[in-house]
């Protein structure tokens, strides 16, 4: 017997063993292996679908977040614009009110000055009148010490009063 050429009996028993092993594997092993491969394929397909859905949801969330950011920026611009308008209005109102108050204070000051001026003029006139009367009284006493001069002066005043009337 040669090492390279097998014997017919050996070939027969190898073929019978191979057939038994193949039958056992075909009956019990291959269905389990095929089932596991199909389950693995289904798991991978489900995972791919889930990943695709997750990517789609993520893209939707990104778009929503961009929209929210855009709206919030627009809202921020609108609020700042309104705040600036309110600020300008408040400043304008304050300026107008200040002008009214200043005008009122100026008018009151002018009125007070005018009153004080009139009061001072009256006091000056009164002082002048009192001084004039005092001076005139002193002069009259000095000049009218004599009775004849007094009578002549009174007559003169009566005649001037009648001619003025």
Summarize the helices and strands and which ones pair or pack.
Layout lengths: L7 H136 L3 H18 L1
Describe this structure in words.
- With 165 residues, this protein is mostly helical.
- It has one domain (8-130).
- 93% of the residues lie in helices and 0% in strands.
- The protein has two helices and no strands.
- The protein has helices at residues 8-143, 147-164.
- The model has no long low-confidence stretch (mean pLDDT 87).
Q: Largest sheet, described in full?
A: none
Q: How many β-strand stretches? A: 0
Low-pLDDT stretches: none
Mean pLDDT over all positions = 87
What Rg do the Cα atoms give? 65 Å
Please estimate the helix content. Answer: over 70%
Q: What is the 3D shape?
A: rod-shaped
Give the SSE string: HH
Q: Estimate nothing, just give the exact number of structural domains.
A: 1
Count of helical stretches: 2
Based on secondary structure, the structural category is: mainly alpha
The portion of residues forming beta strands comes to under 5%
Distance from first to last alpha carbon: 188 Å
Question: Can you give me a brief rundown of this structure?
Answer:
By secondary structure, the chain is mostly helical.
Features:
single chain; 165 residues; mainly alpha; 2 helices; 0% strand
């Amino acid at each position: 017997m040669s090492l390279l050429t097998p014997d017919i009996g050996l070939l027969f028993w190898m073929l019978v063993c191979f057939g038994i092993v193949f039958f056992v594997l075909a009956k019990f092993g291959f269905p389990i292996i095929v089932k596991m491969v199909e389950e693995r394929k289904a798991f991978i397909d489900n995972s791919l679908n889930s990943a695709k859905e997750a990517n789609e949801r993520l893209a939707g969330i990104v778009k929503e977040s961009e929209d929210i950011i855009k709206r919030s920026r627009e809202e921020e611009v609108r609020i700042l614009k309104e705040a600036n308008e309110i600020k300008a209005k408040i400043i304008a109102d304050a300026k107008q009110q200040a002008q009214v108050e200043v005008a009122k204070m100026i008018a009151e000051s002018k009125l007070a000055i005018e009153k004080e001026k009139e009061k001072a003029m009256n006091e000056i006139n009164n002082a002048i009148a009192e001084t004039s009367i005092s001076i005139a009284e002193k002069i009259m006493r000095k000049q009218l010490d004599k009775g004849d001069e007094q009578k002549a002066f009174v007559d003169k005043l009566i005649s001037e009063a009648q001619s003025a009337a």
